[in-house]
Design goal:
The protein is mainly α. It has one domain. Helix content is 72%, strand content 0%. Helix 1 runs parallel beside helix 3 and helix 2 runs antiparallel to helix 3. The protein is elongated.
């Protein structure tokens, strides 16, 4: 399990998301036995956590760049200048 976590941590966001989407398709197909389904679900959850972590890190980096430009408004998903 530790090796699997390390392997996931080495994936970039796009790779992890692609694998997560593939697992979801496998699980939705109904062609996976129970034990395999549980293993795939467990990996999917680890991939989801990894993707969330990478997104949080990216948001933090963006906020730091924005702050360097003198803008201190917090970023909130769904905010847009188009309103």
């Amino acid at each position: 399990m530790a090796d699997e976590r390390r392997e996931i941590e080495e994936l970039g966001f796009e790779e992890a998301l692609q694998e997560l989407e593939q697992i979801v398709e496998e699980l939705e197909s109904g062609q996976v036995d129970l034990e395999q389904m549980l293993d795939r679900f467990e990996r999917a959850m680890a991939l989801r956590r990894h993707c969330a972590k990478l997104l949080t890190e990216a948001e933090t980096r963006i906020q730091q760049l924005v702050d360097e430009e003198g803008t201190t408004e917090a970023f909130a998903p769904g905010d847009s200048d188009a309103d």
